[in-house]
Backbone:
C-alpha cells in the first residue's frame, strides 16, 4: 500500500480519532497533561509502525511528562486501539512531540504586535 493511498489516509484519520478518545478519556496517568491532543498520525505503508504527533499546550516540563506517560502507556493504548479497529496487525505506536501549534501561536503574537504598531502609525496625522 502506498503512503498516500486512500486506504492509508482513511486509516490515519481513524487512528487519530480513536487515539484522541483513548488519550483524553481512558488513560488515568496523572503525567498526561489535560491539554494534550493528537495533531497528526502517519502510518507506514506496511502498517507495522505508526508515528503519532502529540501537541501539548503547556510548559516544557508538561510536554516531557506527557511524552513519558504516553510512552509508558503505549502497550495499553495499543490494546485499546486494537479493540476499536479491525486490523490484522495493530501498528506499533511511536509518540513524537509536535510544537507546530505553539510555534504558530508565537508567530501570530509577533505579527499582531507588528500590526498594532503599524495601526498606530496610520492613526497619526500626516505632517505637511
Residues:
Amino acid at each position: 500500500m502506498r503512503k498516500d493511498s486512500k486506504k492509508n489516509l482513511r486509516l490515519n484519520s481513524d487512528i487519530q480519532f480513536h487515539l484522541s478518545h483513548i488519550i483524553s478519556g481512558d488513560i488515568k496517568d496523572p503525567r498526561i497533561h489535560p491539554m494534550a491532543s493528537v495533531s497528526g498520525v502517519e502510518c507506514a505503508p506496511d502498517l507495522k509502525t505508526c508515528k503519532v504527533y502529540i501537541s501539548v499546550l503547556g510548559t516544557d516540563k508538561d510536554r516531557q511528562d506527557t511524552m513519558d506517560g504516553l510512552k509508558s502507556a503505549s502497550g495499553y493504548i495499543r490494546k485499546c486501539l486494537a479493540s476499536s479497529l479491525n486490523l490484522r496487525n495493530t501498528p506499533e505506536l511511536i509518540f513524537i512531540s509536535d510544537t507546530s501549534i505553539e510555534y504558530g501561536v508565537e508567530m501570530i503574537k509577533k505579527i499582531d504586535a507588528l500590526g498594532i504598531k503599524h495601526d498606530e502609525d496610520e492613526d497619526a496625522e500626516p505632517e505637511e
